[in-house]
Write a structure and sequence with these properties.
single chain, 289 residues, alpha/beta, 2 domains, 5-stranded parallel beta sheet, 3-stranded mixed beta sheet, 12 helices, elongated, oxidoreductase, HIBADH-related_NP60_sf, oxidoreductase activity, HIBADH-related, 6PGDH_NADP-bd
Length: 289
């Protein structure tokens, strides 16, 4: 683990710990907050719980008081912009904002401009991986921003990541995450198609998955095999189909290829009546009789 970064001027807790405010307490935000607390950071937490009313704004101001690092883990770009515009006045020059949310490149560019204009460091830091990867400290994180900002972000990122991929801008990092999700959708569709073919060839599901584990789809098949086969009853989804479809819609705004993949995925989920809040493995699993 890297040594903890020094707080921004005027943000030194009495015990010397770095104060991180985590904004957005969905499954990913909660996992990140817990991981940071476990590594000795002073963590305050905030969730909007509906509209950004006076109570929500007051709680946000309280969570940000004394924070030298802010982690955004919000539903989409619109939420990130709304919350950031409220949060920015509470941050002192030299503070750091890490945005782990999946947003459009144009939204990342806007947020970068908002914070840097006010002398606050901004890093777009979407996570490749699910909550278990955060819990186990093995997530891959895409980082985009100024080199100085990324250097300051690394001690926080190191608490829950095993690898990072750096880009020269927040905009590029946001685009890279959308590309990753596009490839994920294609892989899920390919596995489902392969399982349909295997059934028509008379191969049992376990042997078909054995074959797929030897090919280019191996990482996905190995990671999701227990869910695809239904060997274990899981209490919750690692990553949902609804979340993947939402992210693909962002790429579809500028990419016809992404739009096509998103249409195929959303159409299958609708036609097969798969619960959108189910794990992404339920898509290939739907090919099993």
């Amino acid at each position: 683990m890297s040594e903890l970064m020094q707080p921004a001027a005027g943000h030194s807790p009495a015990d010397g710990k770095v104060h991180v405010a985590v904004l957005g307490l969905g499954r990913m935000g909660t996992a990140i907050a817990n991981k940071l607390a476990g590594f000795g950071f002073e963590v305050t937490r905030w969730n909007r719980n509906g509209s950004l009313n006076s109570d929500s704004k007051a709680r946000l101001a309280a969570a940000l008081q004394g924070a030298s690092v802010v982690v955004l883990s919000l539903f989409d770009g619109k939420a990130c912009i709304e919350v950031s515009e409220l949060a920015q006045p509470h941050l002192e020059a030299g503070a750091l904002v890490l945005n782990t949310s999946t947003i459009a490149p144009s939204e990342a560019k806007l947020l970068d401009a908002l914070f840097t204009a006010n002398k606050v460091f901004y890093v777009q830091a979407p996570v490749m991986g699910s909550v278990p990867a955060i819990d186990n400290g093995v997530a891959t994180v895409i980082l985009g921003g100024a080199p100085t900002a990324i250097d300051r972000a690394r001690p926080v990122i190191d608490t829950f990541s095993q690898a990072v991929l750096e880009f020269e801008s927040a905009e590029a990092a946001a685009g890279a995450k959308l590309l990753s999700n596009h490839a994920l959708a294609d892989a899920l569709l390919a596995i489902r198609q392969a399982l349909l073919v295997s059934g028509q060839l008379g191969l049992p599901i376990d042997r078909a998955l054995d074959v797929l584990e030897l090919g280019p789809l191996s990482p996905m098949v190995k990671g999701k095999r227990a869910r695809i086969e239904g060997q274990i009853e899981f209490s919750s989804a690692d990553a949902t189909l609804a979340g993947l479809i939402k992210d693909l819609e962002l790429a579809a705004e500028v990419s016809p290829a992404a739009a096509e993949a998103n249409f195929k995925l959303a159409d299958l989920v609708r036609k097969l009546k798969i619960d959108p809040n189910a794990d992404i493995a339920d898509l290939p699993r739907s090919a099993i009789p």
